[in-house]
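can u do me a favor
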């Protein structure tokens, strides 16, 4: 494949790139909105995209955030003025994890889950039996949590965003994984969630590393950059990778997944990653770093407006 060059999309090139696409996959936080504020012009951009060309574009939403249900995303899209979306257009790592376990668990098997209410809702919707959501009792300090009975049906440990993560949960996760014949899956590896003003909170990746370290094995990753996320989209909709654009603000999740799946990749600078990082990857001789270079970039997805209005 030709080397990626991270060209700025101008009106004419944007028109050509959009004409070659039937579907556009959007990362959410940092692309469509930041926190509770829509990126200026983003709602109008999506409304025009959905109506563009003779057939319009299929829009899908692809997010590593496991702390919101698909339904919550459709409500947020609506609240911020984006075109109405159905839950099946939303591919969150909670829903995709549920989809994965519904296929990967043996009959009668259940999952021990480090995660919150949204993850539990999506697991339930997919018919995946599970336990562990909510705070766990601290381990019995004399026995390091090793005495409490384990659930006989657990055949998987799933790690997601868990505000109640604790040493007690880590003990339980390890005990399940030590029994053998137990899958280890995680929603995503994002290690930091940036806050306004340069601050950040630890992301799910920190919890995944803790469980992996204890268990001495690697988790199967559901979310971006895992190709599994795109497989979920492609199994739900008739999508041609060569005619699909992935729009994201992170090189190591959104852009890497898009490049690995043969999508056209578009970086927007309203979120985490910068052009300086792209420059570093382009100048590097390391093939792994080259995979982080997008085909195109814009300052904001609202930069697509002139091409859509013309
Ligand atoms: N995980 C959590 C818990 C989050 O809150 C967020 C963003 O808000 C993310 C992951 C990253 O989400 P996205 O893939 O939409 O950027
Ligand atoms: Ca993002």
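np, heres the sequence
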């Amino acid at each position: 494949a030709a080397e990626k060059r991270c060209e700025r999309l101008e009106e004419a090139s944007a028109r050509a790139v959009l004409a070659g696409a039937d579907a556009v996959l959007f990362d959410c936080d940092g692309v469509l909105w930041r926190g509770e504020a829509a990126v200026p012009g983003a709602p109008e951009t999506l409304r025009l995209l959905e109506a563009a060309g003779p057939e319009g574009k299929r829009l899908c939403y692809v997010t590593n955030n496991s702390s919101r249900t698909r339904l919550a995303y459709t409500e947020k899209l609506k609240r911020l003025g984006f075109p109405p979306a159905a839950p099946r257009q939303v591919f969150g790592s909670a829903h995709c994890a549920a989809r994965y376990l519904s296929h990967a668990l043996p009959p009668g098997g259940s999952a021990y889950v480090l995660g919150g209410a949204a993850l539990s809702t999506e697991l339930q919707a997919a018919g995946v039996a599970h336990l562990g959501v909510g705070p766990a009792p601290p381990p019995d300090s004399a026995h390091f949590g090793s005495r409490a009975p384990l659930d006989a049906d657990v055949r998987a440990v799933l790690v997601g965003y868990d505000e109640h993560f604790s040493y007690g949960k880590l003990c339980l996760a390890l005990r399940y994984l030590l029994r053998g014949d137990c899958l280890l899956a995680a929603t995503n590896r994002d290690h930091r969630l940036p806050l306004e003003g340069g601050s950040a909170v630890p992301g799910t990746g920190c919890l995944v590393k803790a469980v992996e370290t204890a268990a001495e094995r690697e988790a199967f990753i559901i979310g971006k950059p895992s190709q599994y996320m795109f497989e979920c989209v492609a199994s739900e909709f008739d999508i041609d990778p060569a005619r699909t654009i992935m729009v994201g603000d992170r090189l190591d999740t959104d852009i890497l997944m898009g490049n690995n799946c043969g999508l056209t990749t578009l970086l927007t600078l309203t979120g985490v990653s910068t052009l300086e990082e792209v420059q570093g990857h382009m100048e590097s001789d390391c093939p792994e770093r080259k995979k982080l270079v997008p085909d195109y970039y814009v300052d904001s997805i609202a930069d697509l407006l002139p091409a859509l209005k013309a």
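The mean pLDDT is 95. hope that helps!!
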